[in-house]
Design a protein that fits this description.
The chain is of the alpha+beta class. The chain is built from 4 helices and 5 strands, in the order E-E-E-E-H-H-H-E-H. It has a 5-stranded mixed β-sheet. It is globular, with a radius of gyration of 19 Å.
Length: 135
């Protein structure tokens, strides 16, 4: 099992650093790609789902997964989850309302660190206000 959410900004789906997933009606992954999928012949709106990069494995599946050799699609896209699909594993995708920030580049890492610092400072300020209010 894995998770995905709608891109807040559809233009972000054009980034090769953002992994996209296409799912079946049953909610299973059909394909993961760094390319903007699904592709649209028209200029109409397309639903892009951003893969969040978190997984839930059963122990036996994980032990099997690491025994498999890398696959052609996995190598082409540089996405290990394609190894599971190419070996016939059904990967269920939970579509969430909100995503978590991706950390695929040094700039992404700095953005997440800055966000955490801001949240930490905000939380500290709230705790301080509560302490003062108790006095």
């Amino acid at each position: 099992v894995t998770a995905a959410h709608r891109f807040e900004n559809p233009r972000d789906a054009l980034s090769l650093h953002q992994v996209k997933v296409v799912i079946s009606r049953a909610g299973n992954a059909l394909y993961f790609s760094r390319a903007p999928i699904p592709s649209s012949k028209t200029s109409g709106p397309t639903l892009f789902l951003r893969h969040q990069g978190i997984y839930g494995f059963r122990r036996a599946m994980l032990l099997q997964f690491v025994k498999w050799k890398t696959t052609p699609l996995e190598q082409a896209e540089s996405l290990e989850q394609l190894r599971a699909l190419e070996n016939g594993v059904r990967v269920h995708v939970l579509v969430t309302k909100h995503g978590s920030p991706g950390v695929d580049t040094p700039a992404d890492a700095e953005a997440v660190a800055a966000s955490l610092r801001k949240k930490s400072a905000s939380a500290a300020g709230i705790r301080l206000q509560k302490l003062r209010a108790r006095r």
